[in-house]
Design goal:
The protein is of the alpha/beta class. It has helices at 11-28, 43-55, 105-116; strands at residues 7-9, 34-39, 62-63, 66-72, 77-82, 93-101, 122-130, 144-148, 153-155, 171-174. Strands 2, 3, 4, 5, 6, 7 and 8 form a seven-stranded mixed sheet that branches. Strands 1-10-9 form a three-stranded antiparallel sheet. Bound molecules: inosinic acid and magnesium ion.
Length: 184
């Protein structure tokens, strides 16, 4: 497949990065942290991170999910947030887990929702990839970052381009001429 010429982050490199992230998460989060992956992009990262964290023992750790869907509204891109479990999480410490932090708009919408509607107490953010050069919400700073990358459109390991490439065990990038510029 063409993408194999464009590997940015190999499967073994991802594994080492996750080991280091898991150690930091173990030391720098509340023992009863609620892991909250943003679906769908973070599914592979969250599953592997969870396995690594369990090796470092966080006995009170729990998991919940949030679905984030973006659609084109009348004037701008709108986000729809759905938390399937409906379980009360008021007062909890939450670790938001996402594949990539780009403009920061998604993370801002999710943190606002969790504080304002769900009334959680404290939020930390773990992302596998960070593209700081694209940030629009300047206050969005992740607590745990796997790798800082330049402005490339990346796919694989959960990240997609129009629904494709999520299954790859590594992260590659597409050339601008291989995309239409959308980052849905
Ligand atoms: P933000 O709201 O701009 O920070 O966007 C975050 C979301 O956009 C991520 O959760 C991804 O789903 C998507 N995204 C941003 N950059 C990329 C990329 O390079 N590849 C695939 N998806 C991306
Ligand atoms: Mg996403």
């Amino acid at each position: 497949m063409r993408l194999s010429n464009h590997v940015l982050f190999s499967a073994p490199a991802i594994g080492t990065t996750l080991e280091n992230m898991a150690k930091r998460i173990r030391n720098e989060t509340h023992p009863e942290i609620l892991f909250m992956p943003l679906m769908h992009g973070s599914f592979m990262f969250a599953a592997d991170l969870m396995r690594q964290v369990s090796r470092h023992c966080l006995p009170g750790l729990e998991m919940d999910f949030i679905n984030v869907r973006s659609y084109q509204g009348t004037e701008s891109k709108q986000l729809e947030l759905v938390r399937p479990s409906h379980r009360p999480i008021r007062g909890r410490h939450v670790l938001l887990i996402d594949d990539i932090l780009d403009t920061g708009k998604t993370m801002k919408a999710v943190t606002d929702y969790l504080f304002d509607v769900e009334q959680v107490d404290f939020i930390q953010i773990a992302v596998l990839l960070d593209k700081p050069s694209r940030r629009q919400v300047k206050t969005m700073r992740p607590d745990f970052v796997g790798k800082v990358i330049e402005d490339k459109f990346v796919v694989g390991y959960g990240l997609d381009y129009n629904g494709h490439y999520r299954e790859l065990p590594y992260i590659g990038y597409l050339e601008p001429e291989e995309t239409d510029g959308s980052t849905a």
